[in-house]
Design goal:
The complex is a heterodimer.
Chain A (H helix, E strand, L loop, with lengths): L11 H62 L13 E14 L5 E14 L4 E13 H4 L7 E15 L5 E8 L21 H5 L4 E13 L4 E10 L3 E2 L11 E2 L15 E13 L2 E13 L7 E13 L3 E14 L3 E3 L2 E10 L13 E11 L5 E12 L4 E13 L8 E9 L1
Chain B lengths: L1 H8 L2 H22 L29 H9 L13 H14 L4 H13 L4
Helix pairs in contact in B: 3-5, 4-5
Classes of the chains: A alpha+beta, B mainly alpha.
Chain lengths: 424, 119
Amino acid sequence: MLPQPASAQVSADDFNALKKTVEQMNEKLQKLEQTHAQDQQIIQQLQQQLGETKVAVTNAQQTADNAAKVQSASPALNVSEGPMHNFTIVGDAETQFGKTAGQHSSFVQADFAPIFLFRASDDVLFEAGFDFILANNGTMISDRSPGNTTTVNLSFATLDYLLNDYMTLEAGELLLPLGTYSERSAGWLNKIPDNPLARDSIVPGTGVGVELRGALPIGASGQSLTFAGYAVNGPSSGATNSIASASALDLNGNVGNNGNWHGNPSGGGRVGWFIPWKPHYDFELGLSGQSGQWSDSGNRSWTAGVVDAALHYGPNIEVKGEYIKTWVGSDDLGTIRPNGWWVQGGYKLAGMGLELPYINNFELMGRYDYLNDALGTKTDRYTAGLVYYFSNTLLFEADYEWLRSHGPAALPPNSFILQLSYGF
Amino acid sequence: MKTTNRLNSLRPARRSGIFLALLASVIFAAPIAFVVAGDTNSPPAQVEPVKPAKNVAKKKLTGAELYQINCNRCHAERYPTEFTSAQWKSIVTHMRVRANIPAAQAREILKYLQQDSGN
């Protein structure tokens, strides 16, 4: 059976309503098309703006990269940390009481020795050490001056530029790496209150100039090869005339602003080999020297050679020392050879493992030092000492020194020294 | 004193030799003569020792070990809490220059000190 054909009858009202609806839809469609065209225009504008933004971002990135390159070449102070954030004070302070045979005992001196550190960036450090010393006049000078004398010394002041992982450039007043004593002798570092004789008499501790120094690591065991090369004003003549007499040698150096004084700086350096085999067990050997003119005419030279060594055998045993030889050209005595040496040992009683109160805080010290000034005076000295550690940086030191000195510049005999020393 | 007079009669080199021999004897004989079984009481002058690494030559040293190796050469070790992180950065830079510490080792030491640094 076939389906019946569809048929419909539409009234005039329905047709008109339908027609109206179609017309309204056409109208809406036209509006939508118009809106779409406007949207397309807006999208094009936005795309154009996006393109411009991308270009701007790329330019900004490039500018930032360029700025970063410039910054790494000359890094600026980290402002977020603030200038005081990079400023640090360390140092030490000492008070000494002394008794020399034939003299009254006294509180000899008080010393405040701050070190100012200013880290301008990761690669630039300025460091300066001062010595404020209040000394009892009764033992410093012989004319009974009243009261005390306060002196202020600039121990060192250098601008350090870390060139790379292996080299640092230093300029200013340098602690000279002639041996190691000058750089490692702050009051609380050396466990005997006074310096070895030769360090005070035949080699300078500081010099004004420039230095290139650094270290090369060897393997992974902590070994390193250290080096330093420097140029400083060097020793000069303290004579009031132009004769380079041997006794006129001024190790502190006083050159540069007088045409009559020698004009060429001295050169020097040190090479060291540091060999640790485990923590607290190490050996270091160093060879250093310096040479240059010292006489006003520039025709007399001063040369020094130093061998230094240090051994740590566990946390409780330390032995170190230096041998120093110098050659001084002179008009009156030819070339003389002042020389000296010292060796110092320490043993911390903690190494005995005794279960007694306070005993582990003691360290026994011994030192022998010898000086021949090559001008007729020879001195040798034995020092026995004891250190008590109140803390890791507060030390009480007691030493007795047996000294024998013969010659025109003979030193005073035996002494007893007490010192309270603090490192901060 | 008789002892002093006897010493004076000797030549300086011989006296030096005797003194050094005595010094060496005291230093090296003391730990042997007085070794007592049990723990060693560390004095306040030094930080508790870090157990040494086995086969040091092959293993990379830690910051703590490098700190003990380098800093104890000249002075008793400072506690990390004694300085702030920023202060340690300045101090380690200072010591890197002064004590000729290789840069890579100085960085490890700084990390170790900053980990437990003071506020």
